[in-house]
Amino acid sequence: MSNPHPELKAPPKLPRDGLRVVALGGLGEVGRNMAVLEHRGKLLVIDCGVLFPEEHQPGVDVILPDFSYLKDRWQDVVGVVLTHGHEDHIGGVPYLLKERGDIPVIGSRLTLALITAKLKEHRIKPRTNQVAEGDRLSLGPFDCEFVAVNHSIPDGLAVMVRTAAGSVLHTGDFKMDQFPLDDRITDLRAFARFGEEGVDLFMVDSTNAEVPGFTMAEKDLAPAIETVFRTAPGRIVVSSFASHVHRIQQVLDAAAAHKRKVAFVGRSMVRNMKIAQDLGYLKVPRGLIVDAKALDDLPPNRVTLVCTGSQGEPMAALSRMANRDHQIHVGEGDTVLLASSLIPGNENAVSRIINGLTRWGAKVVHQGNAKVHVSGHASAGELVYCYNIIQPRNVMPVHGEWRHLRANADLAIRTGIDPSRVVVVDDGVVVDLVKGKVAVTGKVRAGYVYVSGGAVGDVTEDELRDRLTLSQQGTVTVVALVDAETGRLTEPPDFLARGLGTDEKMFEAAIPDIEKALAEAAGQGIGDPHELEQRIARAVSRWAMRRHRRNPLVVPVVIEA
Amino acid sequence: MSNPHPELKAPPKLPRDGLRVVALGGLGEVGRNMAVLEHRGKLLVIDCGVLFPEEHQPGVDVILPDFSYLKDRWQDVVGVVLTHGHEDHIGGVPYLLKERGDIPVIGSRLTLALITAKLKEHRIKPRTNQVAEGDRLSLGPFDCEFVAVNHSIPDGLAVMVRTAAGSVLHTGDFKMDQFPLDDRITDLRAFARFGEEGVDLFMVDSTNAEVPGFTMAEKDLAPAIETVFRTAPGRIVVSSFASHVHRIQQVLDAAAAHKRKVAFVGRSMVRNMKIAQDLGYLKVPRGLIVDAKALDDLPPNRVTLVCTGSQGEPMAALSRMANRDHQIHVGEGDTVLLASSLIPGNENAVSRIINGLTRWGAKVVHQGNAKVHVSGHASAGELVYCYNIIQPRNVMPVHGEWRHLRANADLAIRTGIDPSRVVVVDDGVVVDLVKGKVAVTGKVRAGYVYVSGGAVGDVTEDELRDRLTLSQQGTVTVVALVDAETGRLTEPPDFLARGLGTDEKMFEAAIPDIEKALAEAAGQGIGDPHELEQRIARAVSRWAMRRHRRNPLVVPVVIEA
Q: What is the domain class of B474-560 according to CATH?
């Protein structure tokens, strides 16, 4: 395995018989998945997703891959292949197409329907190319063959990319449910055929590589869902991902069996379920779905609401129900079913919702007290099957934090793959496949690009640091009127504090330090207001740390009087 | 069960034959546990802990119970009983004793040793009263009998409080490990005896009430710990709570069996282990413990480090090792064992550590991939045993979020206790036991008191809201020089932005709105600088929201020229 801490170093020119792989996202994080393949001067992009921020990235809406590696090379991009329709695989496409609008977007029927709906909101009409399992498509020097894979959204695809320099099999996100609702299983026959032909590089989903055994079947949730519908005395509120068509299919089936009506609540849920129904992915019994308003006329035990917000998103319907900030007042007799996974990092938000709903008297059924969720990703047992069926020449674990990538690599090595042919690398690390062997040859920029309040890339790491300081220490503005002649204060400075957790008058004790700083500046003949502001800020910061062990963000204002 | 949303209403005078219970913490949260019992004008406090902040409470060190209910009544407090030595039960005692220093502190030998060491750091010498299981102690009108309970720290006690108005059995934190390392099991014989005598109010730990079945035995971790010590090729770094004496005992035993030396790293770990060893709770084979510096002279496969930081605390040894910011460079060949639970809310921080250590090449063993932790709290199965053995007349679930309290109440009701005798209430709700039956009679202040940067209670909810706005939206200071005569700007205002994620020049487009606000004020004859500042802030905020959907914290400065 490779050095996980390489220097940023531009890679050498790719040999003509070489294939280059650079992930601009998805290595070292769960999200913003994006891989760029290069061969004979052309580039093929696989997925372009977003990453959701953590608590140390306040005010950030989503995080994009850094496209600067593609700068000056947009014309070489022959297409972007989307493996499936989840945000962490398609959410970056609008920003990609703003760089070059006519890049062909390749994907399955449902995936293209979802990205097209998303792009419509951005007023972008993409050039699409719909494919299905079994299809082959030439994109410049890349010959792509698409393979059915099973995941927590229908119509997922893996892609086998053949080039003159060798072949790459990229799984996308997948698992191996042997009894999926749509009978569309991950096509191990195709994997076996590729294995016989020879796979030079296997790029494989790592999300669940740490989890031993096999991921349970989606259908195994039916008993727990059935129990909710059989026993709930009043309304049932189900919260799930707006893209989890099969989970919602199970809920619809249970509702129909128990003579309940169903209303979808929340913009993305309504939109996606309409798409899924129109395209035939969601099968809806006639008369089952009603408008949310029509529910008022039904007795509670005939009502089912299906909404978003299962991750505790504060603006989503479920969170607002928990805060009684929603027209639907959940209370005694109601049952809330959280039919989705808990994405790491959302524990507190989800727990707040469970507590809020429970306080109002609702019964909450969730993965902590019932079998109401299975993962969408292959566990270690399934991954080992893949390694043994495919027997790839080289392996590059993708989609996961470092721990997941490393666990996946360990599985590959246990099946007999030479450790020197297993590359565990970060985003931006350049991996070249030449003469059938992978090697790390450099590193390119692959930092976080923050979308914050609609603006892309304006929030920098420095500004996030400022935001964290502001949130932990607050801020104090120091307004100093300075005599332009003498460089001295004409009156005591004003102090305006916010979020400081202390009386702003405290800072009056720092005035001698400010006076001293100004006197020093005057002694050195310095009168530039900007320079005086820097010195005042430094003096106040030092004083606050020395006297109070505090480090507020100091905003200095010098006005010459 | 009671109304979970009562109005804040002062309770009536307690009848002479009544017993009042008010929890000032621990109901609706996991932490700052504190119950106040009142009878015949005297008060008995059970536990006084801290709560650790969540991500929406930035810059907060710990959260205390609000003591204002005890204001003017400190002289009535006959003692504070500490059930065990965890921070969420003893961390508030220094602040309590700052209110009245001579309140007797009652607890077991280890508990008193831990609180005395903590108080020493606050330069407080407490008046202590050491008790053990089986002891009885009269504290004013409260006759206390102490009972052994098993928990994730040795020497835990439950307390049976008998008064003329009835009896209260408070479990503290407990579980029912039938094979604990110290053979000190939860004394169900005593519980049975109390049941025969009659327990009027059972206050019972709810932390694990949602978890079905029985909590595994501490000794059942031995195989996983043994596997680590048998197979680790290099150093072993174990991270655990500094108070988990039995977990660390198991690590010491494994180290001794495999001829490794052990060094403790981290101030609280060194301090607590010395206390535990001195008092005989930790049994240390001669020559096993060495100074951390002495480890350099040993081969890696003879080294064990035991440190704090298992919750991802950024300043603790483990986090610094993950960032290579610690003298001990963990890397290839090293094994890190996280031998503790993951407290909800710390998932991201712990995951960052696992990823960091894995990137450096270490193998990380944690509760996600090995059986290296058991909980310290009774699961649903154990709680049901208690209800059936004790058959209490009334039940008040304590220690937990609302979901835990409610789950515990449901268990009580399933064992046959009348729902009207099960009170699920929030902090501050007044519960009176009169003539053998509980009733909610009022509510007192029980808000959060924040300790932030050493200051107690200075950070308010408003200021936390400011901090969150600052972190998500940043701040802009507007400096306006205003002509005292005309009320108009003498020059364009200055804008100083921090954490805004955008160019501060953007705000220049808001100048017309500022001019308009000033003109309006002048028209109304308003010249007070403070009022002008409010108007400028409002104008800029509205402009930012209207034009940019942003809501930065605006700090206005008006200077009359």
A: alpha beta
H or E segment and range at residue B529: helix B529-548
CATH architecture of A461-560: Roll (3.10)
Nearest Cα to A370, choosing from A270, A232, A470, A553?
A232
How many other CB atoms are found less than 10 A from the CB of residue A313? 18
Q: Which CATH number fits domain B218-365: 3.30.190.20, 3.40.50.300, 3.40.50.10710, 3.40.50.720?
A: 3.40.50.10710
Between CA B169 and CA B548 the distance in angstroms is 58
Per-residue pLDDT of chain A (561 residues; tens, 9 = 90+): 455 666 778 899 999 999 999 999 999 999 999 999 999 999 999 999 999 988 888 889 899 999 999 999 999 999 999 999 999 999 999 999 999 999 999 999 999 999 999 999 999 999 999 999 999 999 999 999 999 999 999 999 999 999 999 999 999 999 999 999 999 999 999 999 999 999 999 999 999 999 999 999 999 999 999 999 999 999 999 999 999 999 999 999 999 999 999 999 988 999 999 999 999 999 999 999 999 888 889 999 999 999 998 888 888 889 999 999 898 899 999 999 999 877 777 888 899 999 999 999 999 999 888 899 999 999 999 999 999 999 999 999 999 999 999 999 999 999 999 999 999 999 999 999 999 999 999 999 999 999 987 778 888 888 888 888 888 888 999 999 999 889 899 999 999 988 887 778 889 999 999 999 999 999 998 889 999 999 999 999 999 999 888 889 999 999 987
Rounded Cα distance between B408 and B64, Å, is 25
Single pTM value for the model = 0.89
Beta strands in B100-249 (DSSP E): 104-107, 127-130, 136-139, 142-149, 156-163, 166-170, 201-205, 236-239
The residue type of A359 is: R
Dist. CA A549–CA A551, nearest whole Å: 7
- Residues pairing with B15 in the sheet: none
Closest by Cα among A379, A385, A382, A354 to A368: A354
Q: What CATH number labels B19-213+375-456?
A: 3.60.15.10
- A470 to B471: CB separation less than 8 angstroms, yes or no: yes
Q: Is B39 a catalytic residue?
A: no
Q: Is B502 on the interface with A (CB under 8 A)?
A: yes
Q: Does domain A19-213+375-452 have CATH number 3.60.15.10?
A: yes
Please identify among residues 56-115 of chain B the ones whose CB lies closer than 8 Å to any CB of chain A: 58-59
Domain segments of chain B as ranges? 19-213+375-456, 218-365, 474-560
**B475 reaches A (C-beta below 8 A):** yes
Strands of the B494-498 sheet, one edge to the other: B494-498, B475-482, B553-560
Inter-residue long-range contacts of B97-104, CB under 8 Å, 24+ positions, other chains counted: B97/B124, B97/B126, B98/B122, B98/B124, B99/B67, B99/B70, B99/B74, B100/B74, B100/B75, B101/B126, B102/B127, B103/B45, B103/B74, B103/B77, B103/B79, B103/B127, B104/B78, B104/B79, B104/B80, B104/B128, B104/B129, B104/B139
Residues 6+ apart with CB under 8 A from B206: B397, B398, B399, B400, B404, B405, B407, B408
Helix A245-257, helix A267-278: angle, nearest 10: 90
Instruction: List C-alpha distances in Å: A180 to A153, A155, A220, B356.
Output: 11, 12, 10, 36
Query: Using CB atoms, which residue from B402, B473, B477 is nearest to A59?
Result: B473
Q: In this predicted complex, what is the ipTM? A: 0.85
List residues bridging with B440 in a β-sheet.
B431
A207–chain B nearest CA distance, Å: 13
Nearest-angstrom CA–CA distance, B156 and B143: 19
Stretch 406-445 of chain B: residues touching chain A, C-beta under 8 Å: 406
Amino acid letter for position A290: V
